[in-house]
Write a structure and sequence with these properties.
Residues 2-230 form the ABC transporter domain. The protein has 233 residues and is of the alpha/beta class. It has seven helices and ten strands. Helix 5 (162-179) links the parallel strand 7 (150-154) and strand 8. The protein starts with a strand and ends in a 5-residue tail after the last helix.
Length: 233
């Protein structure tokens, strides 16, 4: 289980305070208005932001003393964060060998992972030769091949059209079940995960406002309004 208890972060113009539990193996969708703290929550779990108080643990072990590289976490960013001069296979291989000194077994794993995300035959293509959806598939493959049990996705498909967004969310859910990992995905379009996510977390104003099933969150008029709210200027 991922357990977050009273983790507080402060800036001159923003304060965040999170308490949340996510059962291992779950597909958890994080929703809420822009600027409400969704990305900050994921960055804190990944180790890019450090809370000044509170506890953050996975499988009973505190993550707070660990650097991002030491945490059992892989993250997929909105802009995919691929290296433009590397081919798809090399970008994926960074998830297991940052030096890119690959064994034959490593190469086979990379090929299998690209096939798993629907990119068989794309091994030698560079990011500039692929569509936005294909680039995000490469980023997803890199996260999964790392073998880390907690996968974070920060609005990874927001630039895609609705049909492609939904197909990518379905792919994430399929691979989550196959690889037996925990997925926490922030998303601006909660309808895309309504039928797949097992837990939905509403984050607004720098904190967790509500957590429950997608139907419970989305069918509550006040919570649905909070999700759609625009940030104050």
């Amino acid at each position: 289980m991922l357990a977050i208890e009273n983790c507080r972060l402060t800036w001159p113009d923003f304060t965040a305070d999170y308490t949340l539990q996510v059962k291992e193996g779950t597909f958890c969708a994080v929703v809420g208005p822009s600027g409400g703290g969704k990305t900050t929550l994921l960055h804190m779990i990944a180790g890019f932001e450090t809370p000044e108080s509170g506890t953050l643990a996975f499988r009973g072990r505190s993550l707070l003393p660990l650097s991002p590289a030491e945490r059992p976490v892989a993250i997929v960013f909105q802009d995919h964060n691929l290296f433009p001069h590397l081919a798809a296979a090399e970008n994926v291989a960074l998830g297991i060998r940052p030096s890119l000194r690959l064994s034959s077994g490593d190469r086979a794993r990379v090929t299998d992972m690209l096939e798993a995300v629907g990119l068989k035959g794309f091994e030698n293509r560079r990011p500039g030769e692929m569509s936005g959806g294909q680039r995000q598939r490469v980023a997803l493959a890199r996260a999964l091949i790392s073998g880390r049990p907690l996968i974070l996705l920060d609005e990874p498909f927001s630039s895609l059209d609705p049909h492609l967004r939904r197909s990518m969310v379905a792919l994430v859910d399929k691979l989550r079940r196959e690889k037996r990992v925990t997925v926490i995905m922030s998303i601006h379009t909660p309808e895309d995960v309504r039928d797949l996510a097992e837990q939905m977390v509403l984050v607004a104003g720098g904190g967790v406002v509500a957590t429950g099933s997608p139907s419970a969150i989305l069918h509550d008029p006040s919570l649905a309004a909070a999700i759609a709210a625009e940030p104050e200027s």
